[in-house]
UniProtKB/TrEMBL annotation:
Positions of the UniProt region annotated as Disordered: 1-30
PANTHER family recorded: RIBONUCLEASE D
Protein origin, superkingdom: Bacteria
SUPFAM superfamilies in the record: HRDC-like, Ribonuclease H-like
Organism: Flavimobilis rhizosphaerae
Residue ranges occupied by any HRDC domain in the UniProt entry: 232-312
Pfam name, any one: DNA_pol_A_exo1
Protein name as annotated: Ribonuclease D
Length: 413
């Protein structure tokens, strides 16, 4: 459904035509193998890129599995697939070999989709394209409004997609999410070409497509909100023990950990170090009906931490990594590195404004910090390019920045 945006002055929001119903109607959700087989045949007979989206139940369920997969291709129409009923979608993947898949924020969807056997050969990411073009707002609704002049409702973006049956209004929302995604892709591709950024986008899309899934975190319990305010190893042991008990319970019940026990309750228990269930449930964060009902389980986890010998308590600081310290500490620890970082940031900021590309998309902040903390022995354009590439920078980024960064870092000493 290709449409153009109505004109608008630079000082006002563009007028948008609301999208309320998919052009072909809302298809039934596919839950049977025979239905999937027909969808596979239709997709194989379609033409051009395929629009792809997936819905999860973040904040409701444990993990990040998909509960709905949406596909739309010219000549095939829109498909809504239930990956709970149909967990193996490899046949869809085979039908789309060599086809470009169009996503908005692909990095959020690629790994969960791979668990269903869906692994694209090429992608186009409309969110990344919008960032490279310097659009101020890059959410799907905002980009669709600015580029296509269409209003895309987002009121169901954070609902519990594990709900069965899925409400009709949610299915309409899901179908609309892929309704104009290919049209959006085409419009953004034209803008990228006109801006001389098409090759930048191609490299960014490929980097996202090939990125490995995130590695498991070391000591993930240290990410509990508020843990940095704790000052004793015994308190940290309580956090670790409660976090693990929460994870085990959440996994078993398939509920988001934050719904089982909020972070603030873990921190409150670590600060109070209660010795019995009564003392635990006296804490406001443990007085709720659900939390107090499981209080014996939480107290058992606390008791385990309280009984640990000193040698088994976690250290106050997490495991050492090869990452540089926070930049705020550089001025005192390594003044020369701080000077290099200040000079390098000025270069990246200046190029960002000139090219209308956000700083974080022009160069990964971690790559820049590492370069300034541990620069090559001989700072040259070639050595800086190699150092950045080793940290994941793309060719287009090193082509633009390696020379100016080498000059700035060299001058800063």
């Amino acid at each position: 459904m290709s449409q153009t945006a109505p004109s608008a002055s630079a000082d006002e929001e563009p007028d948008v035509a609301p999208l309320t119903t998919p052009a072909d109607g809302v298809p039934d959700v596919l839950t049977t193998q025979s239905g999937l087989d027909r969808a596979v045949d239709a997709l194989a007979g379609g033409a051009g890129p395929v629009a792809v989206d997936a819905e999860r139940a973040s904040g409701y369920r444990y993990g990040q599995q998909n509960y709905l997969v949406q596909l739309r291709r010219a000549g095939a129409g829109t498909m809504l697939i239930d990956p709970v009923a149909l967990p193996d979608l490899a046949a869809v993947n085979d039908a789309l070999r060599g086809t470009e898949w169009v996503f908005h924020a692909a990095s959020q969807d690629l790994h969960p989709l791979s668990e269903q056997g869906l692994v694209p050969d090429a992608i186009f990411d409309t969110e990344l394209a919008a960032r490279l073009l310097g659009l101020e707002r890059v959410g799907l609704g905002a980009v669709v409004a600015e580029v296509l002049g269409l209003g895309l409702a987002k009121e169901h973006s954070a609902v519990d997609w594990s709900t069965r049956p899925l409400p009709a209004s949610w299915l309409t929302y899901a179908a609309l999410d892929v309704e104009v995604l290919v049209d959006l892709r085409d419009a953004l591709a034209e803008r990228l070409e006109a801006a001389g950024k098409a090759e930048w986008a191609r490299q960014e899309f490929e980097a996202v497509r090939l990125a490995p899934p995130p590695a498991p975190r070391v000591d993930p319990w240290r990410r509990v909100s508020g843990v940095h305010a704790l000052r004793s190893r015994r308190q940290l042991a309580v956090v670790r023990s409660l976090w693990q008990a929460r994870e085990d319970n959440a996994r078993r019940r398939d509920i988001s950990p934050g719904r089982v026990l909020p972070d603030r309750a873990i921190i409150a228990a670590a600060q109070a170090l209660p010795r019995n269930v009564g003392a635990l449930t006296a804490l406001p964060t443990f007085s709720g009906r659900g939390t107090s009902r499981r209080a014996p389980m939480w107290q058992t986890a606390i008791d385990v931490a309280l009984a640990l010998p000193e040698a088994d308590l976690p250290p106050l600081r997490g495991p050492r990594t090869d990452a540089p310290p926070p930049p705020r500490a550089w001025a005192d620890r390594e003044p020369a590195a701080a000077a290099r970082l200040e000079a390098a940031k000025a270069v990246v900021t200046e190029r960002s404004e000139l090219l209308t590309v956000p700083v974080e998309n022009l160069l990964q902040p971690d790559a820049l910090r590492r370069l300034c903390w541990s620069p090559p022995a001989q700072v040259t354009e070639e050595s800086v390019a190699a150092a950045l590439a080793a940290r994941g920078a793309r060719v287009w980024q090193t082509d633009l920045l390696a020379g100016p960064l080498a000059a700035a870092i060299g001058a800063a000493g």
